[in-house]
Amino acid sequence: MSATAKLLVADLASTVHQLPSRFVRPIDDRPNFSHVRAPTGHSFPVIDLHNLHGPSRADVVAQIGQACERDGFFLVKNHGVPEEMINGMLRLAREFFRLPECERLKSYSDDPTKTTRLSTSFNVKTEKVANWRDFLRLHCYPLELYVNEWPDNPPSFRKEVAEYCTSVRELTLKLLEAISESLGLPKDSIANSIGGHGQHMALNYYPPCPQPELTYGLPGHTDPNLITLLLQDQVPGLQALHDNTWFALDPIPNTFIINIGDQMQALSNDRYKSVLHRAVVNSETERISIPTFYCPSQDAMIGPFKELVDDKNRAVYRQFTYSEYYKTFWNEGLATKRCLDLFRVE
Question: Where is the Fe2OG dioxygenase domain (predicted)?
Answer without folding.
Answer: 197-296
